[in-house]
Amino acid sequence: MRFQHPVNGYVENCSAPFLWALCFGPLYFVLKGIWRHAVLYFVVVSTLLSAWGVLAFTASFASVALLSAMKIQDPDKIAMFTAITGFALVAALVLPFLIYPFIASGIVRRHFLRQGWSEVE
Questions:
Q1: What domain of life is recorded for the organism (predicted)?
Q2: pLDDT in tens, 75-103
Q3: Strand pairing of 2-4 and 118-120?
């Protein structure tokens, strides 16, 4: 994709937004000047991590209390729960990195067209 500025004729080349968004995440949007999606990315990630953190803390506290009340001290069960909680935290961080690359091309195109740029071949 290439966009031309209407006033000064500058041509911005936006090649492979999928790849760049996949590799660099919100930094790609910052470099292109698409601040709305860079901020939105950080808000989504921080919200997901906070929610998962609260959930993980509550669930691990409840499971430790439940395991100790049931007099179960099986390290395999504790390790399994810890692995599931860790997986959920990693998924909350990785999920936006997997979603944004698929919509990056449309985001970039809409941004430049809304700014008054014209798309050139």
A1: Bacteria
A2: 676 677 777 777 777 776 777 778 888 99
A3: antiparallel
What are the residues whose beta carbons fall under 8 Å from the beta carbon of 49, sequence distance 6 or more? 89, 92, 93
**In angstroms, how far apart are the furthest CA atoms of the chain?**
74
- CA atoms of 8 and 92, how far apart (whole Å): 42
Residue with tokens 């953190």: 53
pTM above 0.70, yes or no: no
Per the structure, the complete domain to which residue 65 belongs is given by 2-120
15-31 per-position pLDDT tens digit: 999 999 888 888 999 99
CB 112 within 8 A of CB 33: no
Cα distances (Å, whole numbers) of residue 113 to 4, 40, 54, 56, 105: 10, 20, 41, 43, 12
The residue behind tokens 């195109």 is 109
- Exposed / middle / buried, residue 74 (Cβ in 10 Å: 0-12, 13-18, 19+): exposed
Distance separating alpha carbons of residues 117 and 14, to the nearest angstrom: 13
Looking at the structure of the chain, the number of domains it has is: 1
